[in-house]
Automatic annotation (TrEMBL):
One GO location term (cellular component): plasma membrane
Protein name (record): proton-translocating NAD(P)(+) transhydrogenase
Keyword presence, NAD: yes
Primary enzyme class: translocase
Keyword flag Amino-acid biosynthesis: no
Organism: Ectothiorhodospira marina
Primary location class: membrane
UniProt-annotated location(s): Cell inner membrane
């Protein structure tokens, strides 16, 4: 029972901290910061797969499966945004 409260407390603390950190970043820096933090998305994906592997009930498995899908989408989206951002900085061959 207490482990559940600790997990909820850690989740609430992480959500508050994440909100405070992101809200202080200027809008112009969001894309470079996102491209620089793609490794964090991979860590989140591995963590959700570990949590899914330790699930016992059907509800836990369902929530874990949704978390894996969302984390994978987040990781892929980060790499897509990075690729599009890097394309902006490539010079065009025909332009002088």
């Amino acid at each position: 029972m207490i482990e559940g409260f600790v997990a909820l407390y850690i989740f609430m603390l992480a959500a508050f901290t994440g909100y405070e950190v992101i809200s202080k970043v200027p809008v112009i820096l969001h894309t470079p910061l996102m491209s620089g933090s793609n490794f964090i998305h991979g860590i989140v994906l591995v963590g959700t797969m570990v949590a899914l592997g330790q699930s016992e009930t059907g509800l836990q498995q369902l929530v874990g499966f949704v978390a894996v899908i969302l984390a994978a989408g987040n990781a892929v989206g980060g790499y897509v945004v990075t690729e599009r951002m890097l394309e902006m900085f490539k010079s065009s061959k025909g332009a002088k």
